[in-house]
Structures are given as structure tokens and as C-alpha cells.
């Protein structure tokens, strides 16, 4: 990716500033680190997807065909661990966030570039230890590591996996710390809090969860590993310990972790919706504060994972109530995005298709959350395929779609090349169709009573098999839909048309510098005089930097 | 089985209809809002598509009225769901007092049931129509979960404590039940059938399997063989240890000034960790039985202590158990 | 490009009232300034905020253990009293004093560095290191006592599982566990597990802190700090005080609370 064809970009940029492997592995440039993350995350995503395909194939028939139960249990565990800890949590913050947070606020880099690089190495070490554990023996505890199964049964690779996850937790702590400090102290002159793009607000809220929640799960998983190692008994009922305490500690982080995954996605979608309809976002402050509200409320709802764990009915009621409350900020966002479209100038570029798909799927994902926040239905639905469908709608339909949308949107800035638009739209459509076909049957399956993490299911349930076949068919389509962008994005790095500095004609700061940007992002420090998403008429393009609130000159 | 493609499982308990009604209500809300949002988006996307590359739409500031509207309306709808579901949940998780008890022990990867009248079953549970059944559940190893989709009920079975669930079946038939908390290799094989029978049929089934000792009677034997009687009295009337007659369900005063209700969990703790809560007026002299009793034996002891609570029949082993023949050692 | 402008004003310089306030304000070319910061002020602000955020993370890290402590102490008060009585309150008390004094010397080190008194700052940093090591030394003695009494939980030390001798009534051997009424040895193990987890994690932080201080001492000795550049000392000071404060919570929770309870139980 070092060489460029003619016409050569006239400037040095962050990609061609230095050459050689060493210049990448020792870089402190947030943009290069973002690319390091991008490569690593794609790798983990690929592995996680292979497991997913194997799982879907196995479930085509009620009996065990492909693998044995013990292997199947390892497959879904590893699918979960890799996707949650090594793809979904770092996906948007560590790649797009790393690349764009400094640029969007007009800074030269993150506050602590060395810590940023360190976080990538920590992530890799944690990831490789985990991969080692998976290859060497594999864990079959489920990604939730429920005790006492993980501490006294299962196998001893729980320790290595736990250590891997513990280590990689520090990578997200450091990323969150870096974002918070950067957003607080390094905004360009004039970039006040309410001029920040919503992408930044979303990342700020995400970082809060990262620094507050991750240490708790880190210490919890470490306790599991130690208990496994030394049989100490902190979660072991035989020694007076309490297995439910583990679930409380685990979900205290892991529920907010869901918001680590989805908040940055919401930030990306806010950018896409506003920019591709050329409208200032409807209800800026409501979207900004709803991100913070989600981050705060997200810490108060973990108990809804324990409705059937023997928690008291009153605790259940409180957690149910709070879970309904956390739905409101998300609803506010959906309504505001929709309202932003009103009287906009909406383009059908690939990123926008992903963003619109996100709103639809996130609405379904969020609304089906109501079934699970609601106590009586949750009793029937928890630990069934309904849950599986619900969180895939949020994590795949939400996070993955926003991630792909954002990747396409900023691809010209990241690579300096355009992706092929036709292929982009096509693959967005395939992903959308494939995704819905994969996961909507699982809602029905769940209400029918199919428990999750089941290798086999009763053969007399004909309708179950029909639904599983539909789901597997959808997964194949989804898989193809995900391979297409992989191919053409790699292709475009070398052969794509050269991208202009501002190919979408947008006012955001990141578009006011070259594509790809120079190492220090801006040649001189930008000064911000307006709010985000203020669009100028193209004939005034020369004065974009100073644009005042544009009075409509007629549409 | 069904002639049409089913979207909901069979409904065979007193509250499965309530859960379904709630489910349909939330589904209605979900479908309505999903369609509403999708329709609006599609409408906007078509109507306001970019017609030329240079158009700049008129900026629109937010609207507080709208924001309040679309915060309050979802909140109100959410609250209707909350109150409705909490109401149903209370009936699901508050076992009625007069329920018949069935003891359940889960272990990797099988379920053992024992009826109050002594019948034992493995991976199959026979219950009559129209009677309230309460499952008292314990686990020998990891967390399991008894999930009966047709009854819309599920509860984790957690090692080290008792959990309960109850139901009243309304329709005879055979229904699947599953373990719904991942428990290791054969997790997906750890299920079976709940067989719901007409009461007369059920009585036949009971009498056909009536050669086993009731849990309370087995507990009484153990009470004697473990030497509990030396302190608690041959008829549990008390001695160096507190009397157990009528203790179950009563409030017990402890020597640290607190009181506890003597439920199954308390009785269990008092056997395994007697020092934890000491009845006022007694010394900490009872040894722990931790590790010496299987969950099944523990349940039988608990059943015995609970059977002592029926007033004024303490001269007999309370439950109308079939003649206590020494059965083949259970396992 | 377009909206870039050369004339740069330093960003919002709020709420800073430190000793440097009166000093010259344009140290933009200081050799310690990293390229991506506009000036020393911004760099220091970022560093300080970064440390505060990090300490919040640390607090949550200990928080999980504090929660476990609270729950189990509530569940097994007698066992926790028993175990707490067995801890050596004199060593714990001395350690508390040592740490409080070290916090004072650390504060003095920061103060001297800010004023540019190189010799004093090196002396105070060295004193802090010595006090920190004293703490660790005393802690090691305590750990060894627990090892001798077989109080290390589980099989953490191979070949020396948790297996304390329990004192009979009337026996006053300090090496034996004197069970408070209602206590169960298994639950005493839970206490020691939490004790080792918390004090171990705390000791680990002390070791890291001492490492930081050694680096700072060398830098201070070479005259790298002065009135316009002392952020590393300040930030490390924050860290050191935080580690002290954790101990200030640990000491009463682990050493003192149970004793109170013992009297209560009579």
C-alpha cells in the first residue's frame, strides 16, 4: 500500500511518510495505529465468522452431524469470546474512533500516543493468548464463564482464556482513557462541547463505560482464573461462596459492554444521517445527552440478566423498571435520526444505505429488548433463541452495519482511494437481506422454546428445523455479503480512483484536510466557528471555513 | 403435530395464557413502531431524495415539543408493559401455599424427581391436571435450569441453595422440558418430558409406582441413623438442640437478636453450616454435615423437618406415606 | 485548507491555580514538549487528567473486591471477626503510619520540584522510596506469618494448603485460630482470600509506584525538572496518594472492623 500510481498525491501523508515494517510497528500516529487495529480486528472477525458458519451448518438438522457436543460447545464459546471481546468491543472505537477522534476535534494526535500504541500491543497479546487457548484445548464455558462450571468443571484452558481477556481489557481501558483526556484537553480553538460532532459525544460516553466497567470484569475474570488455579472458593458454594455473585459482577460490566458496542455505532450513524441528507442533525443536544444517559443508565440494569437466577422478585421489578427506562434514550435517538431526514437532500450512497439499514434493524433489536425487560415474558424467553436473535440484531444489525457504513464513509480519508460505489450498494443490500433471514426466524424459534447453546434439538419439533434451515440459508447469504466488501476494499487500496480531500462535500473538520491526511492531520491548527453539520451552498465553498449559519438561499 | 405452522408453543398452564397475551401485546407494539419508523424512513428517503448535486436543504433546528412527545409516549407504553408483566411475574414466581411439592435434583446431565408420596422418576415428570405443583430444586454440581415451554416457566437450579418454580397444568399431554442454563457437554441432552395426566389416570400411575418411601419417611430414617435424635430428641421434640416440631415456616429467634423464617433454605443451612445462625438459648455444638449428604438426602431431611410442622399429628410421621418399606438404597 | 488559521490562541486556560501561575507563560519550546501538544500547559493538563481518569479505573478495579468483601462480611460476620482478630494489628498500624508519612514526603517532593529545589526533591523522593519499601517489608513479614500458620487460602502455595490449627477454648496460642462463636473455618478462608487479593493488589501498586519513584529520582538528579516542567512528579504524586488512600480503607476494613464486632458479640 506504499506506492501510488500517477497522479501521485502532491503531499506526504501519514501512509507514505515512513516506510518499512518497523515504521508501522513502532508508530505513534493514531491513524497508523487505527490501521493496525483494523487489520487485527478483521482477522478476529474472520475467525469468529468461521465458527458462526460451522454452528449454523450443524443446526441444519436436529441431531449431531458435523461435530460432537464437546466440539460444538467449544465452537459457540469461541465464537462468542472472539466476537465480543476481540471484535465488537474494539471494532468502532479502536479503528474509526482512533482514526477520527483527533481529526474531528482538530488535534494532531491523541493525548497519549505511546499509550495508544501500547493498547494495540496489549490487545494483540491478549488476543494471541486467547487464540492459543482456543487452539491448544478450547474452552466450552460459553463466553459468560458462569461459575461453578468454569471454575470446577470445564477444562483448565479457562485460565489462559481468562488471562487473555483480562489483558485485552486493559487495551480498552487505555483507549477510553486516551479518548476522555483528548476530548477534554485537546479540542481546537473554538471547538466547544456543543460544536462537537455527535461521533465524539458517542465516543466520550463509550469511554466512560470503558474506564468504569472494564476493570470490574477484568478483576472478575481474574478471580475465575485464580479460583480455577488454586481452588479458593470465592464463588464456590461448598466453601460458602456465592455463584450468583459472579453473575452480578460479570453483568455489571457486560451489560454496559453492550453499550460499548452500540454507542459508537450510534455515533457513526448520527454522522451518516446528517451528512448524507445534508441536514444539521435534528435535536443535537438530545442525541448528545441521550448517549450520556445510556452510559449512566447502562450501569443500573445488569440485574435483568438474573430474572430467572433466583433473584428476589422485588429486585427483579426494580431492574425491570430501570431496563425500560434505558430504552427511552435509544428511542429518542431513533426518532431524531428519522426527523433529520425530513426535508433533507438524501443521497443513496453506500454509507447511507448502511445507516438506514441500521435504523431499521436497531429499532427491531431495541423493541425486542422490551420482551426481555418485561419480567413475565423474560422468564419464558431468557436463554432461548429469542435472546440470541435479539442481541444479534443489536450487535450485528447495529454495530456491524454501522461499522461497515463508517468504513465506507471514511474509506477515502483513510486510504485516499474511493471504493466501487455499485458493489458497495449491492453488498449493503445483500447484507441486509441475509441478516434478516438469519436472525428473524430465531425470534420465533425462541418463543417456541428452543434453548440457546443447544447442539441438538428434539426431532419431533418439525417447525424448529424449518426455522433453523431458514436461518442457515440466511447466514450463507450474509457471509457472501460480508466477503464482497472485504474483496473490493482491499482491491480499492491499490486500484480505486484517487479520492479528493473532501469527496462528499462535507463541513466536518476531518474533511478539511488532505486524503490521506498528513501525519499531523492539519498543516495549521484549525479554528472552529460554527456548530457541527452546517452545510454551505457549493458556490460558497471557498469560505467553508468561516461559514456562518446559512440562511436558506432557496432549495 | 399441529396442522398449521406454529408460532407459539402449546399453552398448557394456568398462566401460559397470560404470558401469551402479554407477548402479543408487546409484539403488537413492536410491529407497530417498526412499521411506523420504516414507513416514515422510506417515505422520506423517496420524497426527499437528492435531486441535484448542489442543493442545500433548509436547516431545521430541533423541536422540544416533539422531543417531549416522543420521550413520554414510549415511556407510557413501556410502563403499561412493566406493570402488566410485573403482575404476571408475581403469579409465576410466588408459589401458592397449598401446592404439592416435588423435589428435583439436577446433575450433569440428568434430572431426578421425587414426589412427596415417594415416587421417583428420571428425566420424566408425571403431574395431574388442575393441581398446583411446586418444584423444589437443587443441583449437585453446576447451575442448571428447568424450562417447560408449554407452561411458560423457567428457573435456574443453583448449587448451594434451593430454588423453586410452580405451575398448574391445564391440558393433558406430553410436553418437552429442557435444561436452559448451559451446563457442559450434554447440555442439549439434559431434558425430558412432563407428562400431564387426568387426575384419575394420575392416581393410577401413583399407585402403580407406590412401593417407594416418601421423602419425609426417608428423611426420618436418616434423622435416626445420623444421630440427630440424640440432641433434637427422638421425636424431634428438642433437647440439647432446639425442638424441630412445628419449626418449618415459623419465625425463629437467633442468639444475635435477629429472627429468620425457617424456610427450606434455612433448614438446609442449619444442617450444612449450623454455626451460621444459632437459635437463641442454644450453644454452637452441632457439627456440620457439609460433604456428608447428597443433595437428595438433604432434600429428604428437609422434607422430614417440614413434615414435622403439621400441628398435633406429631405422633405419626406426618405425611400419609405408604407403609415405609426399606427400599433399595436410592441412587 | 480553508478553515485553518495560523494565529493560534492557547486553549481555554481554566481553573489552574498552582505555583506556576506567576511564572512566564510561553514555554512553548521546552524540550519536554511533545509534538502533538500546543504548549506545556496543555501537556500538563492532559497528563493530570489522564492520571485522574486512570485512578477512577483503579477505584473500580478495587471496587469489585470491596463489593465481595461487603457481601461476605455481611453473610459471615463471625468468621470475618475470627480472621480479623488473627491479623497483626501492630504491624498493620505501623504500616498505616509509614504510608501516611510517605504521603507527606511525596507531597514535599512535589512541592520542592515545583520550586526548582533539586536537592530537596531528590531527598524527599528517596525518603518516599525508603518508606514504601519499609511498608513492603513489613507486609512481607505479615505474609510470612500467615504462611507459617497455614492461612494462605486454597492451594495458592503448592504443598501448603489452607489448614490452620483451631484453638480449643482456653488455649491462647496466637498461632491458632480463635473461632468466634458461629464462625466456620471454611468462611475464614474466604476472608483470607479477600485479604490476600486486596493487600496483594495494593502491594503490586506499591511496587509499581516505587518503580516510578526510582525513575523520577534519577530524572530529578539529572536536573530534568524545574518550575516550568514538573508534571511527571505531580502525576506520580497523585498515584502515590491514591495508593495510600486505598490502604486507609483497607486497614480498618480488614484489621479493625472485626475487632469491634468481637466486642459486640461478647
What do you see in this structure?
The complex is a heterotrimer of chains A (555), B (331) and C (266). Chain A has 555 residues and is mostly helical. Chain A is built from 15 helices and no strands. Chain A has one domain (27-546): Cytochrome C Oxidase, Chain A (Up-down Bundle). Chain A is globular. Chain B folds into two domains: 7-42 and 63-212, Sandwich (Immunoglobulin-like); 215-307, Cytochrome c-like domain (Cytochrome Bc1 Complex, Chain D, domain 2). Helix content of chain B is 33%, strand content 20%. Chain B has helices at residues 16-47, 64-93, 199-208, 215-225, 229-232, 264-272, 295-307; strands spanning 100-107, 110-115, 120-122, 124-128, 132-139, 144-148, 153-157, 163-168, 173-179, 192-197, 251-253, 259-261. In chain B, a hairpin with a 2-residue loop joins strand 1 (100-107) and strand 2 (110-115). In chain B, helix 1 packs antiparallel against helix 2 (64-93) and helix 6 (264-272) packs across helix 7. Residues 312-331 of chain B have low confidence and may be disordered. Chain C is mostly helical. Chain C has one domain (37-265): Four Helix Bundle (Hemerythrin (Met), subunit A). Chain C is elongated and about 70 Å long.
What level of helicity do the residues of chain C show? Answer: 55-70%
Q: Name the helix and strand elements of chain B from N-terminus to C-terminus, one letter apiece.
A: HHEEEEEEEEEEHHHEEHH
What is the total number of structural domains of chain C? Answer: 1
Shape-level CATH architecture of chain C? Up-down Bundle
Question: Oligomerization state of this entry?
Answer: heterotrimer
N-to-C CA distance of chain C = 79 Å
Shape of chain C: elongated
Beta-strand residue percentage of chain C: under 5%
Structural class of chain B: alpha+beta
Q: Can you tell me the overall shape of chain B?
A: elongated
Number of domains of chain B: 2
- The low-confidence runs of chain B, each spanning 5 or more residues with pLDDT under 50, are 312-331
Q: Radius of gyration of chain C, Cα only, in angstroms?
A: 24 Å
Instruction: Count interface residues per chain for the largest interface.
Output: A-B, 101 and 92 residues
Number of strands of chain C: 0
- Mind telling me which CATH architecture of the largest domain in chain B this is? Sandwich
Q: Taking strands numbered 1, 2, ... along the chain, how are they ordered across the largest sheet of chain B? A: 3-2-1-5-8
Number of helices of chain B: 7
- Give the C-level CATH assignment of chain C: Mainly Alpha
| Separation of the first and last Cα atoms of chain B | 36 Å
Amino acid at each position: 500500500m506504499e506506492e501510488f500510481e500517477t497522479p501521485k498525491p502532491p503531499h506526504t501523508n501519514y501512509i507514505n511518510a515512513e516506510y518499512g515494517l518497523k515504521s508501522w510497528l513502532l508508530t505513534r500516529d493514531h491513524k497508523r495505529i487505527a490501521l493496525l487495529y483494523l487489520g487485527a480486528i478483521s482477522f478476529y472477525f474472520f475467525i469468529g465468522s468461521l465458527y458462526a458458519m460451522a454452528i449454523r451448518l450443524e443446526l441444519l438438522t436436529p441431531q449431531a452431524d458435523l461435530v460432537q457436543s464437546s466440539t460444538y460447545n467449544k465452537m459457540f464459546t469461541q465464537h462468542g469470546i472472539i466476537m465480543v471481546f476481540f471484535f465488537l468491543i474494539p471494532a468502532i472505537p479502536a479503528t474509526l474512533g482512533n482514526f477520527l477522534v483527533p481529526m474531528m476535534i482538530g488535534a494532531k494526535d491523541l493525548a497519549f500516543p505511546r499509550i495508544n500504541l501500547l493498547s494495540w500491543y496489549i490487545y494483540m497479546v491478549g488476543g494471541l493468548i486467547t487464540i492459543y487457548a482456543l487452539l491448544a484445548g478450547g474452552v466450552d464455558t460459553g463466553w459468560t464463564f458462569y461459575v461453578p462450571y468454569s471454575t470446577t468443571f470445564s477444562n483448565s484452558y479457562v485460565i489462559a482464556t481468562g488471562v487473555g481477556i483480562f489483558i485485552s481489557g486493559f487495551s480498552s481501558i487505555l483507549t477510553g482513557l486516551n479518548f476522555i483526556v483528548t476530548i477534554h484537553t485537546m479540542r481546537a480553538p473554538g471547538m466547544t462541547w456543543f460544536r462537537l460532532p455527535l461521533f465524539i459525544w458517542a465516543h466520550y460516553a463509550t469511554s466512560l463505560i470503558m474506564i468504569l466497567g472494564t476493570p470490574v470484569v477484568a478483576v472478575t475474570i481474574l478471580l475465575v482464573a485464580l479460583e480455577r488455579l488454586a481452588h479458593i472458593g470465592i464463588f464456590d458454594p461448598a466453601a460458602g461462596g456465592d455463584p450468583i455473585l459472579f453473575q452480578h459482577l460479570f453483568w455489571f460490566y457486560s451489560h454496559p459492554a453492550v453499550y460499548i458496542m452500540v454507542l459508537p455505532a450510534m455515533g457513526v450513524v448520527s454522522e451518516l444521517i446528517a451528512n448524507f441528507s445534508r441536514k444539521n442533525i435534528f435535536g443535537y443536544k438530545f442525541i448528545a445527552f441521550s448517549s450520556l444517559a445510556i452510559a449512566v443508565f447502562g450501569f443500573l440494569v445488569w440485574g435483568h440478566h438474573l430474572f430467572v437466577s433466583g433473584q428476589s422478585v422485588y429486585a427483579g421489578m426494580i431492574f425491570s423498571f430501570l431496563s425500560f427506562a434505558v430504552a427511552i434514550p435509544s428511542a429518542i435517538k431513533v426518532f431524531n435520526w428519522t426527523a433529520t431526514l425530513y426535508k433533507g437532500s438524501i443521497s443513496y450512497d453506500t454509507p447511507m444505505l448502511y445507516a438506514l439499514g441500521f435504523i431499521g434493524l436497531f429499532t427491531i433489536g431495541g423493541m425486542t429488548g422490551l420482551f426481555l425487560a418485561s419480567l413475565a415474558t423474560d422468564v419464558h424467553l431468557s436463554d432461548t433463541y429469542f435472546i440470541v436473535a435479539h442481541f444479534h440484531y443489536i450487535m450485528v444489525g447495529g454495530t456491524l452495519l454501522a461499522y461497515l457504513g463508517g468504513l465506507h464513509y471514511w474509506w477515502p480519508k483513510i486510504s485516499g482511494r474511493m471504493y466501487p460505489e455499485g458493489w458497495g450498494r449491492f453488498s449493503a443490500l445483500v447484507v441486509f437481506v441475509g441478516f434478516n433471514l438469519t436472525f428473524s426466524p430465531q425470534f420465533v424459534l425462541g418463543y417456541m422454546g428452543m434453548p440457546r447453546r443447544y447442539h441438538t434439538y428434539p426431532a419431533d419439533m418439525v417447525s424448529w428445523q424449518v426455522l433453523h434451515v431458514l436461518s442457515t440459508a440466511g447466514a450463507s447469504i450474509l457471509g457472501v455479503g460480508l466477503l464482497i466488501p472485504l474483496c473490493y476494499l482491499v482491491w480499492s487500496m491499490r486500484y480505486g480512483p484517487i479520492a479528493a480531500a473532501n469527496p462528499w462535500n462535507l463541513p466536518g473538520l476531518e474533511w478539511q484536510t488532505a486524503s490521506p491526511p498528513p501525519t499531523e492531520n492539519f498543516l495549521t491548527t484549525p479554528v472552529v466557528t460554527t456548530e457541527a453539520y452546517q452545510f454551505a451552498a457549493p458556490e460558497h465553498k471557498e469560505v467553508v471555513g468561516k461559514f456562518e449559519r446559512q440562511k436558506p438561499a432557496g432549495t | 403435530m399441529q396442522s398449521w405452522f406454529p408460532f407459539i408453543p402449546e399453552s398448557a398452564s394456568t398462566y401460559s395464557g397470560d404470558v401469551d397475551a402479554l407477548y402479543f401485546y408487546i409484539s403488537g407494539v413492536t410491529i407497530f413502531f417498526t412499521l411506523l419508523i420504516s414507513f416514515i424512513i422510506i417515505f422520506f428517503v423517496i420524497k426527499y431524495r437528492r435531486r441535484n448535486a448542489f442543493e442545500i436543504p433548509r436547516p431545521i433546528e430541533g423541536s422540544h415539543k416533539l422531543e417531549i412527545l416522543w420521550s413520554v409516549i414510549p415511556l407510557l407504553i413501556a410502563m403499561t408493559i412493566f406493570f402488566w408483566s410485573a403482575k404476571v411475574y408475581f403469579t409465576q414466581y410466588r408459589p401458592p401455599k397449598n401446592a404439592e411439592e416435588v423435589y428435583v435434583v439436577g446433575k450433569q446431565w440428568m434430572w431426578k424427581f421425587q414426589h412427596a408420596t415417594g415416587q421417583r422418576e428420571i428425566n420424566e415428570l408425571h403431574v395431574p391436571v388442575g393441581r398446583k405443583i411446586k418444584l423444589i430444586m437443587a443441583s449437585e454440581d453446576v447451575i442448571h435450569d428447568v424450562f417447560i415451554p408449554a407452561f411458560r416457566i423457567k428457573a435456574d437450579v443453583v448449587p448451594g441453595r434451593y430454588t423453586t418454580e410452580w405451575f398448574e397444568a391445564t391440558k393433558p399431554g406430553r410436553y418437552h422440558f429442557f435444561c436452559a442454563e448451559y451446563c457442559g457437554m450434554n447440555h442439549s441432552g439434559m431434558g425430558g418430558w412432563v407428562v400431564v395426566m387426568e387426575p384419575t389416570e394420575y392416581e393410577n400411575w401413583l399407585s402403580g409406582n407406590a412401593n417407594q418411601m416418601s421423602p419425609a419417611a426417608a428423611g426420618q430414617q436418616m434423622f435416626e441413623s445420623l444421630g440427630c435424635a440424640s440432641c433434637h430428641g427422638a421425636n424431634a421434640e428438642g433437647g440439647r438442640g432446639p425442638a424441630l416440631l412445628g419449626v418449618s415456616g415459623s419465625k425463629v429467634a437467633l442468639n444475635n437478636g435477629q429472627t429468620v423464617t425457617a424456610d427450606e433454605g434455612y433448614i438446609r443451612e442449619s444442617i450444612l453450616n449450623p454455626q451460621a445462625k444459632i437459635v437463641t438459648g442454644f450453644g454452637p455444638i452441632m457439627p456440620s454435615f457439609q460433604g456428608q449428604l447428597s443433595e437428595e438426602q438433604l432434600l429428604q431431611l428437609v422434607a422430614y423437618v417440614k413434615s414435622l410442622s403439621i400441628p398435633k399429628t406429631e405422633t405419626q410421621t406426618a405425611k400419609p406415606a405408604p407403609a415405609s418399606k426399606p427400599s433399595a438404597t436410592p441412587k | 485548507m480553508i478553515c485553518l488559521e495560523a494565529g493560534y490562541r492557547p486553549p481555554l486556560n481554566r481553573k489552574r491555580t498552582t505555583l506556576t501561575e506567576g511564572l512566564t507563560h510561553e514555554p512553548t519550546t521546552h524540550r519536554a514538549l511533545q509534538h502533538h501538544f500546543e504548549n506545556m500547559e496543555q501537556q500538563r493538563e492532559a497528563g493530570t487528567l489522564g492520571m485522574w481518569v486512570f485512578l477512577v479505573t483503579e477505584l473500580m478495579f478495587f471496587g469489585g473486591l470491596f463489593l465481595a468483601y461487603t457481601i461476605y462480611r455481611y453473610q459471615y460476620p463471625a468468621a470475618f471477626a475470627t480472621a480479623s482478630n488473627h491479623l497483626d494489628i501492630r504491624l498493620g498500624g505501623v504500616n498505616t503510619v509509614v504510608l501516611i508519612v510517605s504521603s507527606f514526603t511525596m507531597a514535599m517532593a512535589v512541592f520542592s520540584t515545583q520550586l526548582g529545589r533539586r536537592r530537596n526533591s531528590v531527598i524527599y523522593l528517596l525518603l518516599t522510596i525508603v518508606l514504601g519499601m519499609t511498608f513492603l517489608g513489613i507486609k512481607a513479614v505479615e505474609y510470612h506469618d500467615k504462611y507459617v500458620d497455614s492461612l494462605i487460602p486454597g492451594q495458592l502455595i503448592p504443598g501448603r494448603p489452607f489448614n490452620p490449627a483451631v484453638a480449643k477454648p482456653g488455649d491462647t496460642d496466637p498461632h491458632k485460630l480463635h473461632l468466634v462463636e458461629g464462625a466456620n473455618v471454611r468462611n475464614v478462608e474466604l476472608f483470607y482470600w479477600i485479604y490476600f487479593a486486596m493487600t496483594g493488589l495494593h502491594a503490586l501498586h506499591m511496587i509499581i509506584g516505587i518503580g516510578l519513584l526510582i525513575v523520577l529520582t534519577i530524572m530529578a538528579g539529572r536536573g530534568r525538572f524545574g518550575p516550568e516542567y514538573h508534571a511527571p512528579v505531580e502525576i506520580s504524586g497523585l498515584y502515590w496518594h491514591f495508593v495510600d488512600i486505598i490502604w486507609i480503607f483497607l486497614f480498618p476494613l480488614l484489621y479493625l472492623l472485626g475487632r469491634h464486632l468481637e466486642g459486640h458479640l461478647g
